Amino acid sequence: MAFYYSRRKLKVREEEESGELNVVPYLDILMNLIIFMLLSITGLASFGILNVSAPAYGPPSAGMTQESASDEPKLTLSVLISRKGHFVSSENAILGEAGAPTVPTKSDGDFDYAALNAWMVKIKSEFPKETKVIVGADADIPYDALIQTMDAIREEQGAQRRLLFPDVTLAGT
C-alpha cells in the first residue's frame, strides 16, 4: 500500500488575517477633546485673572525719572495686612497712630473693608492723579482677605463706583 500525503496537509496554512487596529477615529476624537479643553480653559481663566504687577528690580527707567522731576508731591501708597488690621502708609508718613493699624480689625476678628475703602477715598481726594498702590500681607493672612483688600483699594464702594487705585503691585514678604 502506498502512502500518499494529502494536499490539504502539505499546503502551509496561512495565519488568519487579524486586521490592524484603526486608530484614526480615536485620534480624531482625542484631538477634538484637547482643542475643546484648551479653548474652554482659556475662556474660564479670564474670569479669575487679577491685574497685579510684580515689584520691579533694577535701576529706574526713563519714565520714572520724568515722574520724579515734576513738582507735585509724591505718594508711594502702601497697604500692609496683618492680623491686627490694615496699615496704610505713604513715602512721607504713616497714616494713623504709630504702631497701631490705620484700620483695625472688627471686634469679631474680621477685617473692616468699608473703613479701608473710606481711607482710600480720602487719600484719592488729596492725590487725584495717583493710581499706584503697593499691597503686602503677612504669611498667615488668608487669600480671600488679600483679594477683598485689593477690591476695597481699587474702586469706591457704593453707588458711585469710581476707580481709586487700580494699579496694584504685590510686595514680597
Describe this structure in words.
- The chain has a six-stranded mixed β-sheet with strand order 1-6-5-2-3-4.
- The chain has 173 residues and is an alpha/beta fold.
- The model has no long low-confidence stretch (mean pLDDT 79).
- It has a domain at 74-170.
- 35% of the residues lie in helices and 14% in strands.
Compact overview of the structure:
This protein has helices at residues 7-10, 24-45, 62-69, 113-126, 143-154, and strands at 52-53, 77-82, 85-89, 103-104, 132-137, 167-170.
- Residues in helices, as a percent range: 25-40%
pLDDT < 50 stretches: none
* Coarse morphology: rod-shaped
- Strand arrangement within the widest β-sheet reads 1-6-5-2-3-4
> What structural class do helix, strand and pairing data support?
alpha/beta
Strand content: 5-15%
List the helices and strands and how they pair.
Blueprint: H1 7-10, H2 24-45, E1 52-53, H3 62-69, E2 77-82, E3 85-89, E4 103-104, H4 113-126, E5 132-137, H5 143-154, E6 167-170
Parallel strand pairs: 1-6, 2-5, 5-6
Antiparallel strand pairs: 2-3, 3-4
Helix pairs in contact: 4-5
